[in-house]
Amino acid sequence: MRKAVKWLARIVVVLVLAAAAVGLWKRDQITRLWAVNSLFDEGRIVQNFSHMDRAFLSVPVPRGTGPVSPLPAGPAMTLPAVATDWITARNVTSLMVLHRGAVVHESYHLGTAPEDRRISWSMAKSFLSALFGVIVAEGQIESLDDPVTRYAPSLTGSAYDGATIRNVLLMMSGVAFNEDYLDYESDINRMGRVLALGGTMDGFAAGLTARDADPGARWKYVSIDTHILAMVLRGATGRSLPDLLSEKIIQPLGFESEPYYLTDGEGVAFALGGLNVTTRDYARFGLMAANLGRYNGQQVVPEDWMRAATTPTAPTAPGDLQYGFQWWMPADARPGEFFGHGIYGQYIYIDRARDVVIVATSADRAFREPGVKNDNIAVLRQITGAL
């Protein structure tokens, strides 16, 4: 009996040591998974959104060695009362308003600071759209009507087989993808766990096989479509997304801080929402977009691409927000009114006719409540109207 107890004790010790060894070996993955599962917790979300590199693998997007482009100060504006109430109600973390190219309001909230590099979420899609326009103009992608498999052959046999680049730019791939952030088993949350555990985004995308519709048949917002566009860019150029974005967009805009991308386990950038940028540098990108690709005397993105990208061409439902090449427009958009938008209340809002650019970042856990998106646009319009 004693012998059996001794052997049992030895087995328990071995199991405990093995568990400890596995825990140490997988410590980083376990830590990231825990961080992902608590990313949006009420007491953590604000700081998490300013420090995403603590929860995920990341890679820098070099700003280069060039000078920082100026953001001149203009006469300070008085925000309308609705805006000050909105800042509190929607957990706004930063707000910057530019009129005629000058900063007329800049404020930071909830303990955040100007140097914080804030998660873009889906505003990153608009950055990728701008980059795509440059690569198309350079002739490295022959046609938007090419199949995505021409540049990303690993997608052959997936739900993306047969979709064109144009289909994917307009969110008309037809791929079945559940984007409910509140559903633990949704595709978007499964994708988050792939990132946290060091899996591969390319493999995740190639593993999608279900379709809701034929490519080009109807519009449905599917975030993974943007990763497909990044795969196309990498396949067409043989270069990484951070390298391309740095050379073609970030360096010409003269960013003051080095952005970073969240990455998967192979160092591949999380193109659809993993870009982290300061508020002031989001504003520089917004000014470039407002000037149809021109910034600081240089045509950074072709004007014809910016016009096409910010024209509502996707067949969204009547009365809904409109969509172009990874840019949004209000349902009743005025000429030259468009915006980049990310979940939890991230906006780069542009009104070209009024020469206004507004950057707002938030940690709004109630962002999915009915009417919030339209209310946010209404407030941004009222800020514009107060100038």
Automatic annotation (TrEMBL):
Specify the protein name. Beta-lactamase class C and other penicillin binding protein
Q: Which residues form the Beta-lactamase-related domain?
A: 93-377
- Record flagged with keyword Plastid: no
SUPFAM superfamilies in alphabetical order: beta-lactamase/transpeptidase-like (SSF56601)
UniProt keyword terms in alphabetical order = Membrane, Transmembrane, Transmembrane helix
Which PANTHER family would you find in this protein's record?
BETA-LACTAMASE-RELATED, BLL8153 PROTEIN
Q: Which InterPro entries match?
A: Beta-lactam-related, Beta-lactam/transpept-like, Diverse_Enzym_Activities
> Is DNA repair a UniProt keyword of this protein?
no
Q: Which organism does this record belong to? A: Roseovarius mucosus DSM 17069
Which Gene3D superfamilies does this UniProt record tie to the protein? DD-peptidase/beta-lactamase superfamily (3.40.710.10)
**Pfam families in UniProt:** Beta-lactamase
Q: Which residues cross the membrane?
A: 7-25
